């Protein structure tokens, strides 16, 4: 796509930048989804509200809560941000001490309310609610088999397949859930809720994050630990690969539905997705990103006057690069946080330079300076070129780009909305060709070894540091192709 023309058809939803998926004007990787659960607290709905608000960065298109007091489900789902979907009256109507909640980003432009989670079902044993983050790679195959045998699906979400597998089983809920989870291939974190039980489960490789916390006698579950801090809970531990925790009136029961496979937490959680105040696998995200910047400086130093990071995910790495090199860190780029949901279609001029709706260069900081611009990744290259040109237009004499991840060459099958391999600039161009494409004076990427060493944490001695790096090296931890089906992004 050229920089000069952004097709009118980009704006296809109710508001600008809604569900544009791979045609997003800002050309960035899309957040996945976030889940939050509470078991055993009288204010479960309120806790979940604040927890989901802390996870808002993982999905901005829909939000939902399901709460139970043991007798019936009370639930509400809506399109939009958490604060737009829930108000005081709606929250006060959600009674119960157990809840699961969800924030969603739809990757295919499908923003229908029917796909908002938690998904709610009635089956022979009562009510069932399901919330998940991730992607079930073999869901099309399972769905086809279920439909052939008479199942009728109500949504286009892959999450629905687990409900059908549970409902069709003759076993009790826990055994049925264990069997159902065992049939799934992919990266996922599930929260399942019935009238008297909750199940938290992670995929065999731990691709998608899920952690457990405590607040008094209550158990909490979240995609990120930052949500525990917001509600005053303490983090207990991560849910292990292949693990299935069952909670009921008797407490918590540690179980598993499959033996753990190679640990492979998504590397992009550290690089881009997670909030800096979250911890994963014993490593703080902000600290890990600072180390990425420090290692980047050791691998690819360049003499310059200022270091700046592309907000928000690259700020920590930019600070690390500056500390390592002694080059001053400055706020050379400022993010406008209010561009995501505007009902006013941008003018032709703004569509031609769409990045200016989101970022501004600080002229007084960069004018006449040699600038090191730190960013987390390059997808198609269009946004990187626009940001480099922003800095040049603001008077930067040189712009040296440093990327705190290896070249992004391969699509993700486990819950990140990525373009096809052919659309990823690093899959077909050399580093020098990308440098020319983005109009930078120099360009360097962090090495895979540098990334692994920077993340550290509890899995530093594991294969690849316990990370999934398939988007960089094409080494997928699971099968990715079933019956010719290839899907990108989060299909929850």
UniProtKB/TrEMBL annotation:
<feature type="binding site">
    <location>
        <position position="266"/>
    </location>
    <ligand>
        <name>[4Fe-4S] cluster</name>
    </ligand>
</feature>
<keyword id="KW-0479">Metal-binding</keyword>
<dbReference type="InterPro" id="IPR029055">
    <property type="entry name" value="Ntn_hydrolases_N"/>
</dbReference>
<keyword id="KW-0808">Transferase</keyword>
<feature type="binding site">
    <location>
        <position position="376"/>
    </location>
    <ligand>
        <name>Mg(2+)</name>
    </ligand>
</feature>
<feature type="binding site">
    <location>
        <position position="375"/>
    </location>
    <ligand>
        <name>Mg(2+)</name>
    </ligand>
</feature>
<dbReference type="GO" id="GO:0009113">
    <property type="term" value="P:purine nucleobase biosynthetic process"/>
</dbReference>
<feature type="binding site">
    <location>
        <position position="471"/>
    </location>
    <ligand>
        <name>[4Fe-4S] cluster</name>
    </ligand>
</feature>
<dbReference type="InterPro" id="IPR029057">
    <property type="entry name" value="PRTase-like"/>
</dbReference>
<feature type="binding site">
    <location>
        <position position="313"/>
    </location>
    <ligand>
        <name>Mg(2+)</name>
    </ligand>
</feature>
<dbReference type="InterPro" id="IPR035584">
    <property type="entry name" value="PurF_N"/>
</dbReference>
<dbReference type="InterPro" id="IPR005854">
    <property type="entry name" value="PurF"/>
</dbReference>
<feature type="binding site">
    <location>
        <position position="412"/>
    </location>
    <ligand>
        <name>[4Fe-4S] cluster</name>
    </ligand>
</feature>
<dbReference type="GO" id="GO:0004044">
    <property type="term" value="F:amidophosphoribosyltransferase activity"/>
</dbReference>
<dbReference type="InterPro" id="IPR000836">
    <property type="entry name" value="PRTase_dom"/>
</dbReference>
<keyword id="KW-0411">Iron-sulfur</keyword>
<dbReference type="GO" id="GO:0051539">
    <property type="term" value="F:4 iron, 4 sulfur cluster binding"/>
</dbReference>
<feature type="binding site">
    <location>
        <position position="468"/>
    </location>
    <ligand>
        <name>[4Fe-4S] cluster</name>
    </ligand>
</feature>
<keyword id="KW-0460">Magnesium</keyword>
<protein>
    <recommendedName>
        <fullName>Amidophosphoribosyltransferase</fullName>
        <ecNumber>2.4.2.14</ecNumber>
    </recommendedName>
</protein>
<dbReference type="GO" id="GO:0006189">
    <property type="term" value="P:'de novo' IMP biosynthetic process"/>
</dbReference>
<keyword id="KW-0315">Glutamine amidotransferase</keyword>
<keyword id="KW-0408">Iron</keyword>
<comment type="similarity">
    <text>In the C-terminal section; belongs to the purine/pyrimidine phosphoribosyltransferase family.</text>
</comment>
<comment type="function">
    <text>Catalyzes the formation of phosphoribosylamine from phosphoribosylpyrophosphate (PRPP) and glutamine.</text>
</comment>
<keyword id="KW-0004">4Fe-4S</keyword>
<keyword id="KW-0658">Purine biosynthesis</keyword>
<dbReference type="GO" id="GO:0000287">
    <property type="term" value="F:magnesium ion binding"/>
</dbReference>
<dbReference type="Pfam" id="PF13537">
    <property type="entry name" value="GATase_7"/>
</dbReference>
<feature type="domain" description="Glutamine amidotransferase type-2">
    <location>
        <begin position="33"/>
        <end position="250"/>
    </location>
</feature>
<dbReference type="Pfam" id="PF00156">
    <property type="entry name" value="Pribosyltran"/>
</dbReference>
<comment type="pathway">
    <text>Purine metabolism; IMP biosynthesis via de novo pathway; N(1)-(5-phospho-D-ribosyl)glycinamide from 5-phospho-alpha-D-ribose 1-diphosphate: step 1/2.</text>
</comment>
<feature type="active site" description="Nucleophile">
    <location>
        <position position="33"/>
    </location>
</feature>
<dbReference type="InterPro" id="IPR017932">
    <property type="entry name" value="GATase_2_dom"/>
</dbReference>
<keyword id="KW-0328">Glycosyltransferase</keyword>
């Amino acid at each position: 796509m050229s920089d000069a023309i952004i097709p009118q058809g980009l704006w296809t939803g109710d508001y600008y930048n809604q569900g544009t998926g791979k045609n997003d004007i800002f050309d960035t990787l899309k957040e996945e989804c976030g889940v939050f659960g509470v078991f055993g607290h009288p204010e479960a709905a309120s806790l979940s509200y604040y927890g989901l608000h802390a996870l808002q960065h993982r999905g901005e298109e829909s939000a939902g809560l399901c709460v139970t007091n043991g007798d019936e489900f009370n639930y509400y789902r809506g399109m939009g941000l958490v604060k737009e979907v829930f108000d005081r009256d709606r929250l006060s109507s959600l009674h119960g001490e157990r809840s699961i909640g969800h924030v969603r980003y739809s990757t295919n432009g499908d923003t229908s309310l029917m796909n908002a989670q938690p998904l709610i079902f009635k089956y022979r044993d009562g009510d069932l609610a399901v919330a998940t983050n991730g992607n079930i790679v073999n869901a099309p195959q399972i769905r086809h088999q279920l439909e052939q045998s008479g199942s009728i699906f109500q949504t286009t979400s892959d999450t629905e397949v687990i409900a059908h597998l549970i409902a069709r089983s003759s076993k009790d809920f826990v055994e049925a859930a264990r069997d159902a989870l065992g049939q799934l291939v992919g990266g996922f974190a599930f929260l399942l809720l019935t009238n008297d039980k909750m199940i938290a489960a992670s995929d065999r490789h731990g691709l998608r994050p899920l952690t457990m916390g405590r607040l008094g006698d209550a158990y909490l579950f979240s995609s990120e630990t930052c949500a525990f801090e917001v509600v005053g809970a303490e983090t207990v531990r991560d849910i292990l690969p292949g693990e299935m925790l069952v909670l009921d009136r008797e407490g918590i029961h540690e179980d598993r539905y499959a033996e753990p496979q190679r640990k492979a937490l998504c590397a992009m959680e550290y690089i881009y997705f997670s909030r800096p105040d979250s911890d994963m696998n014993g490593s703080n995200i902000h600290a890990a990103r600072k180390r990425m910047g420090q290692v980047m400086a050791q691998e690819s130093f360049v003499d310059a006057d200022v270091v700046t990071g592309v907000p928000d995910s690259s700020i920590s790495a930019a600070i690390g690069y500056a500390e390592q090199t002694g080059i001053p860190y400055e706020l050379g780029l400022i993010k406008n946080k209010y561009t995501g949901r505007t009902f006013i279609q941008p003018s032709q001029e703004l569509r031609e330079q769409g990045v200016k709706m989101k970022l501004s260069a600080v002229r007084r900081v960069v004018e006449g300076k040699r600038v090191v611009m730190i960013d987390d990744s390059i997808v198609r290259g269009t946004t990187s070129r626009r940001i480099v040109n922003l800095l040049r237009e603001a008077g930067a004499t040189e712009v040296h780009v440093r990327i705190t991840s290896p070249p992004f060459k391969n699509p993700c099958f486990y819950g990140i909305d990525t373009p096809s391999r052919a659309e990823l600039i690093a899959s077909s161009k050399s580093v020098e060709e990308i440098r020319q494409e983005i109009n930078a004076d120099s360009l360097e990427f962090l090495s895979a070894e540098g990334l692994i060493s920077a993340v550290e944490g509890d899995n530093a001695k594991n294969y690849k540091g316990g990370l999934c790096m398939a988007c960089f090296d094409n080494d997928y931890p699971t099968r990715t192709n079933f019956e010719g089906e290839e899907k990108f992004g989060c299909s929850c």
